[in-house]
Amino acid sequence: MDYYVLASLAEDINSGWCWVKGSDVSNRSLIQIKNNANGKSIVCEALSVDRNFEEKYRNAISSKMNKHLLDRSNVILMNAWYREKLGIVKTQSNHNLQISFVTKWCICKRIKACTMHPQVAVRLSTWLGLIGIFVGTVSLIPSQPHKLMAVTAIGYFMGRLNITRAWSK
User: Is the dihedral of CA 41, 46, 52, 56 positive or negative?
Assistant: First the structure.
């Protein structure tokens, strides 16, 4: 579906959510947004555009010409971090985006939402928590040679995940 993409307000620059209008979004639910043009996707929280937000957005814009941007039916407001992840260069234009809800049982996408968060503290704490789970699991293995094999395997897979790239991008 075509969504009109707008830049979010300056106060939302470090937030892990997108404002969505024209979808059955329930507040604070997790959604996956996929750019159908290039296949890139993100997972983030969704907030629905209501009258209070529309008023605040209109008051934040100094240009009279842009005061009616939210009058369209399908609008999504996202910060530069998420636009870059989706490969969206131009705002105030239509983009073919697919929005789907993330179920509460989809742990992988919930973790993806944390590892793709704009704030580095959230990304770092998520990765450290995942490493802690792996190390804790290895400590439960009773024999020493099996622990060494498990640690080697974990090290290999963590290297394949390329954690430093995940922290920076």
Answer: negative
pLDDT of residue 1: 82
Architecture of 2-101 per CATH? Beta Barrel (2.40)
Nearest CA to 81 out of 115, 50, 58 is that of 115
Q: Write down the pLDDT at residue 67.
A: 67
Strands 2-7, 75-78: parallel, antiparallel or unpaired by DSSP? parallel
Which sequence spans correspond to the domains of the chain? 2-101, 119-168
Q: What is the pLDDT of residues 104-145, one digit of tens each?
A: 888 889 999 999 999 999 999 998 998 888 888 877 777 777
What's the angle, vertex CA 105, arms to CA 100 and CA 17, rounded to 5? 45
Q: Are 49 and 19 in contact (CB under 8 A)?
A: yes
